[in-house]
Fold each of these.
Amino acid sequence: MSQTLLDRLWTLHRIAPAGGGQDLIHIDRILLHDLSGARALTEVAEKGYAIPNPNLAFATPDHAVSSAPGRTAETFPKGAGGVHALRAGSAAHGIRLFDLGQDGQGIVHVMGPELGIVLPGLSVICGDSHTCTNGGLGALAFGVGSSELAHALATQTLRIAKPRAMRVRFEGRFPEGTTAKDAVLAAIGRLGTGAGAGFAVEWGGEAVRALPVEARLTLCNLTIEMGARMGFIAPDDTTFDWVAGRDHAPRGAAWDEAVAHWRTLRSDEDAVFDADHVIDAATIAPQVSWGTSPEHVIAVDAPIPDPDAAPDAQRRKAWQDALAYQGLEPGRPLAGTAVDWVFIGSCTNSRLSDLREAARVVRGRRVADGVTAWVVPGSVRVKRAAEAEGLDRVFTDAGFAWREPGCSLCVAANGEAVPPGARCVSTSNRNFVGRQGKGARTHLASPAMAAAAAVAGRIVDIRKGL
Amino acid sequence: MQPFTTVTGPAAPLLRPNIDTDVIIRVERLVGTAKAEMGAHAFEIWRRRPDGSEDPDFVLNRAPYRDAPILLAGSNFGCGSSREGAVWALAGAGVRAVIAPSFSDIFANNALQNGLLPVVLPEASVSAIAAEVERSPGNARVTVDLERCVVVSPSGDEHPFAVDAARREALLAGLDDIGLTLRQADAIAAWQTEDRSRRPWAWPT
Ligand code: SF4
């Protein structure tokens, strides 16, 4: 019988049925960060359970840490407890920790693939909803709550119901100026933030197959914003070339065996999906979010929607509230809207390729007066690589702040926040009310679009130049 | 985990629908608050007035509801953010069971991991029990009996409820999911041994 990639990944990890429609599945990698990871380690200790496979778990602090140059765990005092608990728990159980200031530290979804901790075909969990990012390598990766995390630490398994299979294909080619970020935002805008609930999403199609790995990670990162816990892309030669030689990737004969296995990880031609969507890649322009949900997104040159034209009363109300919060009027395009802050970072868009795209726009230009602009590299590796290319100078010469790796302004949980009422173009993934700080107004966009907004002092359409 | 067999005591009526996890525990309390201390912050948005003093009108600030082990709530209890802190806050405040017409899935699962029983009863039953409790006022006792799967109202009316058989057994034995899964430790170990030869590359050396 024909199988989907989800079927194959699921079967590979299924140990036994667990009752109540659930399966007991094996978890190959557990990633721990300073909030949920620290909690789960504490919980396992409190309940008196052992951790039988500490070599399958990896830890790094990222969420509640400052990104200020020279930062320590104490720079953001409220976050220090989590970092200390992560250190203590990792040390007690022999779990490898990539600590602040050390090679390898970074946003958990950036450092995992980068170090080869995450590989195609592995089942990967973390106490963080954006764990789906790792699906860009063809991993079965998803976020879990801290009890599930503790369960996995203590048993190396999870009890979980197999999701239904959805496929979203981008056929054709993306136009110049359209990135993976724009593609996934457009998909969420068209299908809605609830479309993926209960599904695992396989992203595919000609345009996706043409994407480099880092862009695939960006695409999969936003799967959760469509309501699906996991999203993945079938691994191919592009993937294998990217994974080869990474610190924790297999080598020699084991590598050859792995690649042979990874080549089987794909949906059959005649596989049947529970839901199947096709999007014409050529129709996707650079996207910017206008409201307070990732589905509140439009092409940068499209008019801001009018709540009176909303499809139902519930959405009319949501749109009205979003426009009021964002301080926007319907009918006009977002292009031209003045901005106060720009944030280039987060597990969505903080990899070397993202920084290169942003730097290409910034080079030789200045951040507009009155705009505060930050670049927060996703990991120590990304930061060093960018510095080796001189990207840090491109940014700092232009007036950007160049900071230490962490979640920073993606989530106001680390002492860093966009001030109330300020408008921020952000390369992150959530534009929820208060996400970047109390009263902060977020506009999600690609790195190049964010960089352009910093330089112009307003939202601009990069296709038209600055 | 504390086994759940039978819990008897005052039941606090909080019959609004959609009581979300933000109301149960404020997000600020999730950072820097030990799990054991979260009970003190349960429902603080309703429990406290803006100046920090207790609001005497809130039901959980009134005797004998203050230490009620049972909550009677409206539909979709525990909706919103998936934070498990909401369950820790309730458990820390001494709540052992919440009786409501429906629950958010994530909340219900989190609750079961912490020995807190989400009991689904029809809206009419919840209202009828609440009315009996309020007539007493509050002194009447409600029983949640997991062995027989019934809620017993103060007047002795029995309201049967359904619960997954494996779940029930685990709760009665005080096993959380970890304890339940570890019963299969041998099967997991055997699977791992096999997997090491099937996918040697998946196992870090
Ligand atoms: S960068 Fe943002 S979305 Fe990504 S893990 Fe950190 S807080 Fe979560």
Note: Residues A 62-63, 107, 109, 128, 130, 346-347, 407, 410-411, 428-429 surround iron/sulfur cluster (CB under 6 Å).
Amino acid sequence: MGMSFSTVLSLLAIIAKVAVVLVALLTAVAYAVWLERKVVAHIQSRWGPYRVGPHGLLQPVADGLKILFKEDFAPSQVDHLIFWLAPFIAFALSLVPISVIPFGASVTISGHTISFQITDLNVGLLFVFAVTSLGVYGVALAGWSSNSKYPLLGGLRSSAQMISYELSLGLGVVGVVMLAGSLSLREIVERQVGLWNIFLQPVGFLVYFMAAIAETNRIPFDLPEGESELVGGFHTEYSGFKFAMFFMAEYANIVTVSCLATLLFFGGWLGPVFGPPLLRALLPVAWFCLKVLGFLFLYIWIRGTLPRFRYDQLMGFGWKFLLPVGLLNVLVTSLLVAWRST
Amino acid sequence: MAALFYILAAVAILAALCVVLQRTPVYSALALIVVLCSLAVVYLLLGAEFLAVVQVIIYAGAIMVLFVLVIMLLNARQETPLDRSRLARWLGAPLLAVFLGEVCFAVWQRYPVKATAAAVIDGGPRAIGALLFRSYVLPFEVTSILILVAVLGAVVLAKKQP
Amino acid sequence: MVPLAHILALSAILFGLGAAGFLVRRNIITIFMCIELMLNAVNLAFIGFARFLGSLDGQVFAFFVIVVAAAEAAVGLAIIIAVYRNRGSLSIEDFDSMKL
């Protein structure tokens, strides 16, 4: 094939990185479920999972095994190809954005530079948005293929909600992109040395975070899948492993959005670094994970505390409040950037 | 790199055949999404990074969502095949292939296969933005008015008359 | 590096398939999708030429094609919804008179 030894080596390095990141992400997704159950339980003055392993730490393992062994059936009138395809689309697309997310600074060990990132696209941020906008299909097709009232309504509402809040999601980060002058996630973090973007773009952060909660269909924006409203929304007719894929896709989206929030507004992996070279290499990753954990906790805290929006309130909020505020933020930021550069 | 292009070309052509031949509109829409995404990767190979992500965000992620939602709303059923003349059916596809072969031949005469590419171009957002806001600022502003008109027109046309 | 002729051949094939679908299909939405296929084939040609002539103008043109396609898809689908409400059918054979 004509591939030199160094290309084979770099290919193997990429495959190893992808494997490590995927395993880490799937573990994070499984334990995000555990974290949610524990935190919501404590907010509601009860214990949550307690018996399976110390403090219920093996609960995700037990749940995973249970779901794997469930009978896989589908109602007879569904469109079988799309019924089967939709959860795969949702799950696969939720795992893709992690490939452009940098976990730590680049380290040089004995001449080789290892960057804690699978690939650094120069349009990395847009790539994440591209994959997010494709995620609408998982929801819309699931709702339609189920051939039933509640899933169809839930699927249509959910996809309308997701495409409406995508706009505000993008507008919230335009200010950050203007300050950093680049769409590459690594460069955006490296421009935050000294001053994190949260102090320069507070409005942008609020717009981004609220739009992100709406994009991931979480409380208070989870009407399309609320039990008291639509039974189960677009995943009513799903059971077993396919339902587990939707569930994991939702949590993987939450993890991705939290990673983006820390990278764009909270300095990513920046934090006090000290000690021997090995510690210096790993501390940024630890800071990054700590910040992402903080965001996950914030997500779960909001879920346990707030009631949900009605659908017209939800759409009105997205179009009539969040979008104009985002535009205003872009206007003010661009004026300030232009004034500062003269 | 070149092998990837041919694989993507094969995927795009197969998906385009599905778009044209499938009876159910939803399957045609899904096949069209596959075409769009494979073309986006081809754009990446041709050095148009910004265009590739714009294609996915706008074309595959917004326009096709519009198509899929309209298909769901209007409950588009399968097309029933007409009883056309068998001659037309058995002659049509080969004639199309011949026509496409002629077009490809004419193209290859004009641009021989050995033509080499110019220097690597930078299709990043900064370069495209510079062009859009300097040389092409008038079409840029006019298209924003066009989009506004389209939004208003779509809302007015699709409204339910009481 | 992929020769320009092959890129243009792919563009021609996609365009031909889109045109054939446009002429053969009867569901108005599928016809619309074949139009989008043709637009994409043209975009590919633009970007191929941009690569081979070393200028970004082709990419800017492709960008405008995408934007115009978005506007056209929005208005076109709105028209289809309005006509469906009037005729009750999505087959172009039922759209054969200007009388409401």
Note: Helices of chain C lie at 4-24, 28-53, 57-87.
